Predict the structure.
Amino acid sequence: AKQALLCKAGRRQAALPIGRGAFFLGSERMLPTELLQAPPVTLSGRFPPQPAVVNIDPNLHNNELNLWVEFNNGVATALQLETGAGGGQVTRGWILLHKREGSTEEGSNTSNVHAGFLLGLGLRGHLKVLNDTDCYKYLRSEHDA
C-alpha cells in the first residue's frame, strides 16, 4: 500500500518540472559568474509516524520515467532565463561551464539534465553563441552502445 502511494506521488513529482518551466518562464536573471542549478527530483518519501525514508520499488516504477523527469527538469531550468537586455548575455563559456560542473554533481544523471538544459537554451535562442566545434562535441557519441 505504501509503495502504491509512493508511486502515485512519484508520478505527480514527475510532472512538476513541466509546470515549473511554464510558471517561471523568463523570470531568472542570468549572472555570468553563477550556475543555474536544477532542483533535485525526489522520488522517495516518508510515512509518519515512522521517520524512515522509503524509496520507490524499482519493480513497480519504470526507471525510464526518471530519465525524462531529469530531462524536463533541465529544460525547465533553462526556460527560466530572461532574454533581451534585462537578462544577462549567455556566453559560450557559461554554457560549457554548466556541462563541466554538472559532470561532478552527484545524485542525478547529469547528462540528461544537461541535455534538457541545452534544449531549453535553444528554445530561448541562446545557443547561437556556440561554434561548430562545440556543436560537434555535443553531437558525437560519448557512450558505447
Q: What stands out?
A: The beta strands are 44-46, 53-55. Helices lie at 2-23, 63-79, 92-102, 110-123, 132-139. The mean pLDDT is 81. Residues 2-23 form the longest helix (22 residues).
